[in-house]
Amino acid sequence: MRAGEQMPPLEIPITRTLVVAGAIASRDYQDVHHDAELARRKGSPDIFMNILTTNGLVGRYITDHFGPSAVLRKVAIRLGAPNYPGDTMVLTGTVEEVDGDTVTVKVVGANDIGRHVTGTVTVTVPDAGGAAADRGDAVIPREPVGRTPGGVS
């Protein structure tokens, strides 16, 4: 893994269930995340995803890519265009820096409206900076790691 490398994109269908479940799981009971009629009264065309759900999806994108030993150290994100039910958010990442076992990734999540999320994630990957990395051997998985059967996707 080297600076400038692109991570494969991850498409996430934004369903009504995902929006509502994410809000409930993060104890965000604001009506704009679960009540379409009240969201419309407040000027939104529908309910929309909250930042904590987005944060979790960004974390999932990084850990799926780097594998089960990856540890998120810092996730700094900013929201832009809302994610509404029926949208598809596509997460992409670019490696900005590799320093020993620490990797910094620029992440963008976009939908048809525009950029939903932008930010930077710092992750440690044990052995990423070891002797194998010095030889140029691949020590960081380049493909997303599969989920366990019955696991949450």
Short description:
With 153 residues, this protein is an alpha+beta fold.
Overview of the structural elements:
It is built from four helices and five strands. Helix content is 24%, strand content 31%. The chain has 153 residues and is α+β, with helices and mostly antiparallel strands. It has a five-stranded antiparallel beta sheet, with helices on one face. Mean pLDDT is 87; it is low at 130-153. It is elongated and about 50 Å long.
What percentage of amino acids are in beta strands?
A: 25-35%
Could you estimate the helical fraction of the residues in percent? Answer: 10-25%
Whole-angstrom Rg: 17 Å
What is the average of the pLDDT values?
A: 87
Number of contiguous helices: 4
Global geometry: elongated
Q: Count the strands? A: 5
Sheet bearing the most strands, described?
A: 5 strands, antiparallel
Uncertain runs: 130-153
Structural class computed from helices and strand pairing: alpha+beta
The helix/strand series, from N terminus to C terminus, equals EHHHEEEEH
- First-to-last CA distance: 25 Å
The strand order across the widest sheet is 1-3-4-5-2
